[in-house]
Amino acid sequence: MPDSDARVVAAAFARERWLPRGGFDRRRARALDHFLRHELTKAPFYAGFAGASLADLPVVDKRTVLADFASFNRHGITLDRALAVAESAERSRDFARTLPGGVSVGLSSGTSGTRGVFLVSEAESRLWAGILMGQLMSPASLRTMLRRPLRVALFLRANSNLYQTLDSSRVAFSWHDLTVPLETHLPRLAGTDVLVAPAGVLRRIAEAAPPGLRPLQVVSVAETLEPDDAAVIAAAWGRPVEQIYQATEGLLAVSCPAGRLHLNEAHLHVEPEWIDHQRFHPVITDFTRTTQYVVRHRLDDVLLAAPGPCPCGRPGRSIAAVLGRADDVLTLPPGDVPVYPDALRHAVALAGDLGDYRIEQHGAQWRLATTLGGPDAVTRVAAEAGRLAERLGARAPEVVSMGWPDEAPTQKRRRIRKVT
Q1: CA atoms within 13 A of residue 190's CA, in its CB half-sphere
Q2: Do 273 and 221 touch, CB atoms closer than 8 A?
Q3: Once rounded to an integer, what is the mean pLDDT over residues 78-95?
């Protein structure tokens, strides 16, 4: 990384780490107002909204953006052009190519059935790197970084110029391709300081116990971190599992020492769309991104609000968990009574040790696959599901056994899923 770029990352890091907490709301309100007044109309979709307040702007979602992709970025880059670059990188596994102006393209895994595409400039990549390190780096990692380069290993389906921004004289970044068998990566992990991977991959690495791997930080990304995985991973290395909540739409939250996820409200405006008194869908506006605009963008994710101020003292809204996507919410008759993933996970835990499991809803039928639990696993899960249904005032589901579903190594793990 050139010295000028490193200085930008360092400045963003310092602001994130040591900016006074007083005046937090005032600073972010001023930044949002500046964005709406001076940046918003540079994207064609918002050209007619000069002088509009945030409440006057339409709520959009991934399908809206993909249907008119060029109108949501200031360069007029079409979806076909962005996809051509992203898909070429997926095939070649070379993710260094950029569009004119140094714009990088990323592609989501498409767990919701529609693959998201994001654009990010070099300046936004450097800002992202500084913000992420400022929020995430533990004191032990920072002390290490002062003595020698901090070794960060990232396991993901695809690399990106965004992630490569972390690589510098102070951070030795390595990407580990999930399209390659995990076993081939394990010998290279000795001496890793910060291990970052999806929760299911972290658990497999923990169970493999590769020699020489004693990370200072273990960070879960890309998947819902479930309590049983967190317990196994934490026991393996004697430290809690931290989390980064990031999507195509940007860096959304990072965990704190108190175990909560803090929404990135210094750079995002979050409007909760409440499902009940605890759970909500986030509608987000990123007032730092001006390559591809994320303005009143509704996510399908279901977030669980945390009660009261966080004990860590960090300002802004915190959440207890990312529960999953809207299609991870199963339903029961009569009238499609919702069964949220956190409630169902608790019921499954009461059914005893099932090992890993998958639950799929197909109409009125819930299909169960387990790696442990024996022949009576279905009976035990059905009993707990029946008790849960009774508490919800609904009819119990029919629970049947199914074979283990086919899952590509690059696919995000989804234990609970509503198929039909």
Answers
A1: 6
A2: no
A3: 80
